[in-house]
Structure prediction request, 263 residues.
Amino acid sequence: MGNLTREEIEKLAEHCENAELQAYEISKITDDYPQMDYEDAFDIQWEIRRRKEARGNKVVGMKMGLTSWAKMSQMGVEHPCYGFLADYFSVDDGGELKVDELIHPKIEAELAFVLKEDLNGPGVHIGDVLKATDLVMPAVEVIDSRYKDFKFDLKSVIADNSSSSRFLTGGVAKPVSELDLKTLGVVMMINGEVVQTGAGAAVLGHPASSVAMLANMLAERGEMLKAGTFIMIGAITAAVSVNKGDSFTVLFDGLGSISGRCV
Ligand code: 0L1
Ligand code: MG
Prediction:
């Protein structure tokens, strides 16, 4: 049972979405609405989604965030979160990331699962996810919290669509049976220098665990993951800031690479 009124949910969704669309910083919602609870926070996120769909944008996938223990403790939060991916968030592999459209972007090395079967929580586990997965492919997420200096609490992040802003996918897609997802290594390079390395197990111990958690969190709202859904599992590496003029490449063991240029 939320603590905010419907009018407040709609007003805050507009507030967060305007900051995203016009690329300006805002203070975290709980500064002004300390009574906001998790249900309110997700209501705001789902209202942002409704606003975009009403304008004709398509939701092209989902993301999990804050899925590594290191990142949760770095950001001082206690649980992963999810967000949605709108069509215009997608940047082509090898393409340009337009930094002026964003506030303070950071890139993260991720993997994406594409489902061939529905996943309907609660009770979804790693085995269900592996059975339901068509392909796993490389992904790079560009996060861009609308909150000043990336300072927030978990409820405020959820309301801000979990900092979703852009993503790239590409490289090589493979069935899960051809991959060891826990030891799958990634190397992130910016301007030719290695800045981060990691392996799949950084994400909740097993990348499929993140997809299971998403299905189970969605079930709390009576929602599910449909066959065909593209799901980014959360960062395998720490997030690294990028600036105009930077180029980045992330290498994925056995899955090729993804590159982009910040313009
Ligand atoms: O892991 C993520 O995709 C980030 C989720 C939101 C928190 C942040 O902005 O760092
Ligand atoms: Mg991420």
User: Anything to note?
Assistant: The chain has one domain: 59-262.
